[in-house]
């Protein structure tokens, strides 16, 4: 039986099945804490604990899902290409928005961490919280942070942003599809982009653009901030 559980086919069934179940629960309840990702993560962790299957085995079995991250990014690029007209005349405002978002994301973490007495490892782990997971982990590793902690925080920020982002945008009366897309991508990266796609094609395209720009901007700004504060 354990051999079956460790097979690639069963691992993929577990990943997709738990997420689809999470989607069903979320649609039925509409409770933010029952986000599909939270439910699927809980199910997978519980299953691995009960079955005694190591994370390394699960990671190998789910490698197809990891591989699909690449094509999904390309797909976002194609969606952006289709909405290229919305970039014309907005380049300066888009770059300015991403720059400010990146600066606020980094500085806010440093200030809160200093106030709470967190050490440098925690600070370096949290600085790239608004960047998509692969880039955030690379930034944290180069800065001397805890990569595992960074991955967890990035996921949490993505889920939290996808839940509270749309209500906040409505509360602030933001109507621009470009602004909403940039806000979701810059604050909640991949999970936020998935939510932005539900809001509209333009929102999804600009959110995908924000992911890439935030990654580049944050990677460039963090070393500069370190020099200024050292």
TrEMBL record:
Keyword Transmembrane listed: yes
One Gene Ontology term, aspect cellular component: membrane
Topology versus the membrane: Multi-pass membrane protein
GO molecular function term, any single one: hydrolase activity
Keyword Flavoprotein: no
Domain of life the protein comes from: Bacteria
Keywords: Hydrolase, Membrane, Transmembrane, Transmembrane helix
Localisation: Membrane
Any matching Pfam family: LrgB
Main location: membrane
Transmembrane domains' residue ranges: 7-26, 32-52, 64-81, 93-113, 147-169, 205-225
Protein name: Putative murein hydrolase (TIGR00659 family)
């Amino acid at each position: 039986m354990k051999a079956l559980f460790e097979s690639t086919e069963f691992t993929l069934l577990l990943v997709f099945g738990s997420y689809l179940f999470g989607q069903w629960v979320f649609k039925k309840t509409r409770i933010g804490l029952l986000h599909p990702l939270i439910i699927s993560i809980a199910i997978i962790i519980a299953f691995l604990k009960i079955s005694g299957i190591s994370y390394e085995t699960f990671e190998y079995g789910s490698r197809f899902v990891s591989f699909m991250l690449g094509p999904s990014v390309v797909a976002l690029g194609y969606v952006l290409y289709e909405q290229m007209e919305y970039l014309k005349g907005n380049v300066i405002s888009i770059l300015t928005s991403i720059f400010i978002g990146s600066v606020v994301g980094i500085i806010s973490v440093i200030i809160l961490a200093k106030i709470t007495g967190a050490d440098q490892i925690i600070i370096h782990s949290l600085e790239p919280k608004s960047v998509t997971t692969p880039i955030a982990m690379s930034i944290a590793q180069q800065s001397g942070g805890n990569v595992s902690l960074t991955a967890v925080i990035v996921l949490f920020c993505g889920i939290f942003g996808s839940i509270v982002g749309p209500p906040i945008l409505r509360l602030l009366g933001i109507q621009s599809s470009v602004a909403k897309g940039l806000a979701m991508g810059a604050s909640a990266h991949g999970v936020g982009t998935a939510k932005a796609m539900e809001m509209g094609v333009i929102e999804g395209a600009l959110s995908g653009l924000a992911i890439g720009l935030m990654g580049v901007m944050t990677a460039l700004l963090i070393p500069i901030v370190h020099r200024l504060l050292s």
